[in-house]
UniProtKB/TrEMBL annotation:
Keywords: Glycosidase, Hydrolase, Signal
Organism lineage: Bacteria, Pseudomonadati, Bacteroidota, Bacteroidia, Bacteroidales
Family according to the record: Belongs to the glycosyl hydrolase 29 family.
E.C. designation(s): 3.2.1.51
Protein name in UniProt: alpha-L-fucosidase
Entry annotated with the keyword Membrane: no
GO BP field: fucose metabolic process; glycoside catabolic process
GO CC field: lysosome
Keyword S-adenosyl-L-methionine attached: no
Annotated SMART domains: Alpha_L_fucos
Top-rank EC class of the record's enzyme: hydrolase
Alphabetized GO MF terms: alpha-L-fucosidase activity
Length: 508
């Protein structure tokens, strides 16, 4: 795996308000002389690279599965379907991208080539592509239309390129296929402008010769770093890991700092592209991948955050029979809480139909989902009703409720300074809430291991309303509705100083 610290490039979507990113280590070696205490300290100081940091700040990325399978009503094609079947009547990439941007998505990843090997661009290295289809008399280029739409609407553009190619006769022939693959990868990285994410899955079947292809991952990574250094490489890559299921749910305890010992592509490939929930395996798809017990046994620790993928429909490609099975806005909101709200980035698939548009059912659900999220998080009640006159240390608390991710309230390591583990917020009047949002400044690392949120009515006693383990970039918690005038956050266990970027209370 290629794991580097900080790059000079930035994502096309980078926020102009971001401060200059301070260089840090996104990988650290554990020596035989390290004590448990020094290992914990090292883990606390592992931080994301700039590309990882900007990627995490996006929160929402859209997947667009579109290709030969759209027209054959399949999920996995065998590479034998005629290019003449690819004949959309009205591809409207701008409708795709604008709809997704308006729904809050900051980046779009297109399946430029799925396992069937059919290319959505006129590749110079195969005839199995749009150039052999009747669409636009073979002069069309879906990849270009999507990348142009992303530029127009200020959305990041990502590419999915399946390593498995069921059409290529070279597949299974070792270097010959890897040479072919890297030429296609180079086309995508050089002909369509900035790329924010490159997505490789783990599907790896047999070629025409009955042999499985051995992928040259390191060579691919080097090319991406050379041509698109700002792009994160996801799933079968060193920057972003697959969470382990395709349900839209992250772990209750989701660490971004994990043992590099687990970054084994064969283990990821063994489980990706499955439809079932995965049992713990002791690797990157297990339930526990970053606890103290795990990192104390590690040889190397790396920042390796989770991307959490799910489709808005039962399938990944469009099927008319699923028009009445589109996930509702409520389901999408629940998924947001269990993905972004569990220290991950949500990768939501929305497949265009045979005409080449996002279907009305999908668009309606996305629009309502955006309205739900905006309504829930419109007003931070904690910030709105804070009583500045009663907070002795208001200056220290203010950064945690100012709505700016780049500022933080700092809590000392509670293992050494227990008196500093509590932040108390007094309010001007009682507030009613049932949602809590917490964020750490991940540019300083991920450190919180356990916390409790407590509330108290005037004259009453403190009551626990929510608790959790990790926070990371963002932690969202729902609970029964509470009315209180005093709130406190108790950090029970940490891996050093805590940089609390945001603390919010909301009413859903």
């Amino acid at each position: 795996m290629i794991l580097k610290s900080i790059i000079s490039g930035v994502l096309p979507l980078c926020l102009s308000s971001l401060p200059v990113y301070v260089k840090g280590q996104n990988m650290v070696v554990i020596s035989p002389q390290d004590t448990p205490s020094s290992i914990i300290s090292k883990a606390a100081n592992v931080v994301p690279s700039l590309r990882q940091y900007l990627w995490q700040r996006q929160e929402l990325t859209a997947f667009i599965h579109f290709g030969m399978n759209t027209f054959t009503n399949k999920e996995w094609g065998d590479g034998k379907d005629s290019p003449s079947l690819f004949c959309p009547t009205e591809i409207d990439a701008e409708q795709w991208v604008k709809t997704l941007r308006d729904a809050g998505f900051k980046s779009v990843i297109l399946t430029c080539k799925h396992h069937d090997g059919f290319c959505l661009w006129p590749s110079a290295y195969t005839d199995y592509s749009v150039k052999s289809s009747p669409w636009k008399q073979g002069k069309g280029d879906v990849v270009r239309e999507v990348s142009n739409a992303c530029k127009k609407y200020g959305v990041g553009f990502g590419v999915y390129l399946s390593p498995w190619d069921r059409n290529s006769l070279l597949y299974g022939q070792g270097k010959a296929y890897n040479d072919y693959f890297i030429k296609q990868l180079e086309e995508l990285l050089t002909q369509y402008g900035p790329v924010s994410e490159v997505w490789f899955d783990g599907a790896n079947g047999e070629g025409p010769n009955g042999k499985k292809q051995k992928y040259d991952f390191v060579r691919w990574y080097k090319l991406i770093r050379k041509l698109q250094p700002q792009a994160v490489i996801a799933v079968m890559g060193p920057d972003v890991r697959w969470v382990g299921t395709e349900t839209g749910r992250g772990r209750e305890t989701e660490w971004s700092v994990v043992p590099k010992d687990n970054l084994d592509p064969t283990l990821i490939a063994k489980h990706s592209q499955q439809t079932e929930l995965l049992p713990p395996e002791g690797d990157m798809v297990g339930d526990d991948i970053g606890s103290r017990s795990k990192i104390l046994k590690a040889k190397v620790l790396a920042w390796y955050p989770a991307e959490i993928d799910v489709s808005i429909r039962p399938g990944w490609f469009y099927h008319k029979a699923e028009d009445n099975k589109v996930k509702s806005s409520k389901e999408l909101t629940d998924i947001y809480f269990s993905s972004v709200g569990r220290n991950g980035v949500l990768l939501l698939n929305i497949p265009p139909n045979k005409e080449g548009r996002l279907s009305a059912e999908d668009v309606k659900s996305l629009k309502s989902f955006k309205e739900n999220i905006d309504n829930i998080f419109k007003t931070n009640l904690l910030a709105r009703y804070i009583d500045k006159n009663r907070v002795k240390a208001f200056k220290a608390l203010k950064p945690s409720i100012d709505g700016r991710y780049e500022t933080s309230s700092v809590l000392a390591d509670n293992e050494n300074k227990a008196k500093n583990k509590v932040l108390t917020y007094y309010l001007k009047s009682p507030i009613t809430f049932n949602v809590c949002a917490l964020q750490e400044d991940i540019s300083k690392g991920q450190r919180v291991e356990s916390f409790v949120v407590e509330a108290r009515r005037v004259g009453g006693s403190w009551e626990k309303v929510a608790e959790g383990t990790t926070i990371g970039y963002k932690r969202l918690l729902r609970f029964n509705t509470v009315t209180a005038q005093e709130i406190r956050l108790v950090i029970k266990q940490t891996r050093g100083k805590v940089y609390l970027s945001e603390f919010g209370l909301y009413m859903e």
